[in-house]
């Protein structure tokens, strides 16, 4: 386990690959290495946790469905703008 101070504020390639880590898109050994680093580095663990929260909020918001009245209103405005432009 390493800490940020000895790594130049975590500019090393393991932490730069946080998104790949979260996506599970790394080799098993790279996943283990980054996990070990996160376990020993509060600064990077905080960055990891923040990214997890952001991903969760984005994922949740992508499942929300707009009300049909809003969709109709937007389509009406688009149609109106097309008629005005011609």
Q: Regarding quaternary structure, how should these chains be classified?
A: single chain
- How big a fraction of the residues is strand? under 5%
Rg (CA only): 22 Å
Largest sheet: none
Q: Count of helical segments?
A: 5
Structural class: mainly alpha
Report the count of strand segments.
0
Helix content bin = over 70%
H and E string: HHHHH
Distance between the termini: 66 Å
Shape: elongated
Number of domains: 1
Whole-number mean pLDDT = 83
Low-confidence stretches: none
Domain Putative zinc-finger: 16-45
Organism: Arthrobacter bussei
InterPro entries: Anit_sigma_mycothiol_RsrA, Anti_sigma_zinc_sf, Znf_put
Protein name: Mycothiol system anti-sigma-R factor
Brief synopsis:
The chain contains 5 helices and no strands. The chain has helices at 13-16, 18-23, 28-40, 42-62, 68-85.
Which tags fit this structure?
single chain, 86 residues, mainly alpha, 5 helices, 0% strand
Q: What is the topology?
A:
Blueprint: H1 13-16, H2 18-23, H3 28-40, H4 42-62, H5 68-85
Characterize the structure shown.
It comes from Arthrobacter bussei. This is Mycothiol system anti-sigma-R factor. Helices cover 72% and strands 0% of the residues. The chain is mainly alpha-helical and 86 residues long. α3 packs across α4. The radius of gyration is 22 Å and the shape is elongated. It starts with 12 loop residues before the first helix and ends with a helix.
